[in-house]
Design a protein that fits this description.
With about 220 residues, this protein is α+β, with helices and mostly antiparallel strands. The protein has 3 domains: about 60 residues, Beta Barrel (OB fold (Dihydrolipoamide Acetyltransferase, E2P)), CATH 2.40.50; about 70 residues, 5' to 3' exonuclease, C-terminal subdomain (DNA polymerase, domain 1); about 50 residues, Ubiquitin-associated (UBA) domain (Helicase, Ruva Protein, domain 3), CATH 1.10.8. Helix content is about 45%, strand content about 15%. The protein is built from 9 helices and 5 strands; from the N terminus they run E-E-E-H-E-E-H-H-H-H-H-H-H-H. A 5-stranded mixed beta barrel has the order 1-2-3-5-4. Strand 4 and strand 5 form a beta hairpin. Helix 2 crosses helix 3. The longest helix is centred in the middle third of the chain and has 21 residues. About 10% of the residues have low confidence. It comes from Sinisalibacter lacisalsi. This is Holliday junction branch migration complex subunit RuvA. Keywords: ATP-binding, Cytoplasm, DNA damage, DNA recombination, DNA repair, DNA-binding, Helicase, Hydrolase, Nucleotide-binding. It is found in: Cytoplasm.
């Protein structure tokens, strides 16, 4: 299994890139959002990858973070969601957006992705809502962007002055993970904790850990 790839970006296609690794070119399919985050041709690049194996097909998919890769794996487990649909959802919302939409049960946000109908969007939310807390927690648990690992003396990869910068993790990632952990320690179910944290982050994306916990507790407090 190919879990990560590092090399020189040779060219960009509509939905894929070619990465030269020590003289071997790998075609890696990516979402629109990931494509926009990649450097230009000739620059060093590193992606987390997932290999799709079928009888008549081998396809490699690339992601800028393990969180994005994990959502791709989970989305692919939903009936009616193939690789193309998964990349469309991730391209439209990003890994953080998918986490929040699913945690909040917001299937309309999922439906906004190209080619995703209402029934499929509802199925995604219903089947993956319980998985959202664990994936959201990955954002602050060292599962961020893929580190640049291109060796300067690797054959076929010319030395670069500096590794290509990958997109940084969202500033709220650690706060999100810590708030989820705190709420679970207080006895709240993972699903309701994730939904409360996602709601707060939608309203105040800049909230730190303490503010997240306070606001989430207000949402979770019994009404009446």
């Amino acid at each position: 299994m190919i879990g990560r790839i590092a090399g020189r970006l040779d060219y960009r296609g509509d939905d894929h890139v070619l990465i030269d690794v020590r003289g071997v070119g790998y075609i890696v399919h990516v979402s629109e959002r990931t494509m926009a985050a990649l450097p230009g041709p000739g620059e060093a690049v590193t992606l987390w990858t997932d290999l799709l194996v079928r009888e008549d097909l081998l396809q490699l998919f690339g992601f800028t973070s393990l969180m994005e890769k994990e959502w791709h794996r989970l989305l692919m487990s939903v009936q009616g969601v193939g690789a193309k649909a998964s990349l469309a959802i991730l391209g439209a919302l990003g890994a953080d957006g998918v986490s929040r939409a699913i945690a909040l049960g917001d299937w309309n946000a999922i439906k906004a992705a190209r080619g995703i109908g209402p029934k499929t969007a509802q199925r995604v939310v219903n089947e993956l809502k319980d998985k959202a807390p664990a994936v959201m927690a990955m954002a602050g648990a060292g599962a961020g962007e893929a580190p640049p690992l291109v060796e300067d003396d690797a054959p076929g990869v010319p030395p670069a002055a500096a590794p290509a910068a990958m997109p940084a993790a969202r500033p709220d990632a650690a706060a999100q993970s810590e708030a989820l952990s705190a709420l679970r320690n207080l006895g709240y179910a993972p699903g309701e904790a994730a939904s409360a944290v996602a709601t707060v982050l939608n309203e105040t994306p800049e909230a730190d850990t303490a503010a997240l916990i306070r606001a989430a507790l207000r949402l979770l407090a019994p009404k009446g």
